[in-house]
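Hi support team,

I'm filing this because I wasn't sure whether my run with iron/sulfur cluster finished correctly. The job status page said complete, but I'd like someone to confirm that the output block is well-formed before I use it downstream. Pasting the exact inputs I used:
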Amino acid sequence: MRKKTRQIHVGNVLIGGGAPIAVQSMTTMYTRDVDASVAQIHRLEDVGCELVRVAVPEKTDALALGAIKRQIHIPLIADIHYDPELALIAIEQGVDAVRINPGNLLRDKTTGSQYDTFKRIVEAAKAADIAMRIGVNSGSIDALERGPEMRKVSMRMRDDGTLERSDPAEERRREREELSSRMVAKALEYCGWADGLGYQNYKVSLKSSNVLTMVEAYRKFAAASDVPLHLGVTEAGTLVTGAVKSSVGFALLLADGIGDTIRVSLTAEPEEEIPVAYEILRSLDLRQRGVTFVSCPSCGRVEIDVLTIANEVERRLAKVQTPIQVAVMGCVVNGPGESKDADIGLSGGRGKGVIYKKGQFLKTVPEEDFLDEVLKEVAAILPESEAKLVYPGEGELGPVSAGRTRKAGIPAKTAEAIATASAAPKTRGKPLNIIPSGDGNEPGA
Ligand code: SF4
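And here is everything the job wrote out:
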């Protein structure tokens, strides 16, 4: 059951209030390079990105926003640090939202107040009817306000003069508790500023590179406010590390109904973030968009090159938005069962495979036609616009080069070596010393 939050809009995308959890990403191009930024955003749109953020470090970048906005089809969010003038230019350029951290905005030149700087941006956003993300990061709170409660390790001098070191796990727990509370207090203070200015079209993020800190902060904030939440783990890491950290953090929150939009942040091409985000949402039954892909890890029973075929099929289905299930299985042990559950399933056999369609046997195909045949059948159950992306035409896909296959056979030399090895006395390893289970009267005991 999702937590009820107030609903806002970022361009034409609704966030919170029961709207589908929106998937977003951020470009890696220099924003001032309009063509490169637009091309990357188009690639993101193709794989299902619903909101896109661009960094705006300088005025030249801010001035490029209008040209980018005019050439893309999803809402554009300007990411601003420090300089309020950049936010004001971004708003003039027609962005759909600005992301700011009120705590790192330059102070107003006349009054010396951060609130006054924030107020200028809020008033411009309100006039333009655009959204804002108030982003609080653990890094900025940590750097600014590290106090004695957040020491990494405590030491105490015992009476005998020796040092007693605190339990590091307990220290980390205390540090998380302190840091997350400070993040939430800051976020609530900024929300109070916005509400006080009669502005409610904003969401909040409470990011940390530490998954447990981030989870704790979002939970505390969600208990105290109905402002919609953007979930993210900052500096999450490369493809595998980042995907795991985001999955763990988001799953803990989303399963509790917390979170209205997500960004899986990866040190990778941003297009790679989107499938991970949808996989998390599909796994929790929160979004159904795109292909649920089932493939076996393969093992010593494998009859086909599952690794190559599965990766290739998944890659070619990346742009599909219709919810379907596709399976690629390596042999007859689990293959037929999983393949039958899928809309289209391939189960490997010796030099051939069986294709199932919605649980029914469809046909047997030779190994060299696996990719062509599977994609042809997937295309047949998709709407025409998506079918063209998956299967451009007969023979145009080319075969997937098989790595490990049964059909090619085991090379003769290897086969001989195997035969010799099997005939050799079994000297590998030390014989197990079996302890008799009886009373010790067995022969040889
Ligand atoms: S389906 Fe067959 S090849 Fe794949 S993991 Fe299971 S037993 Fe191994």
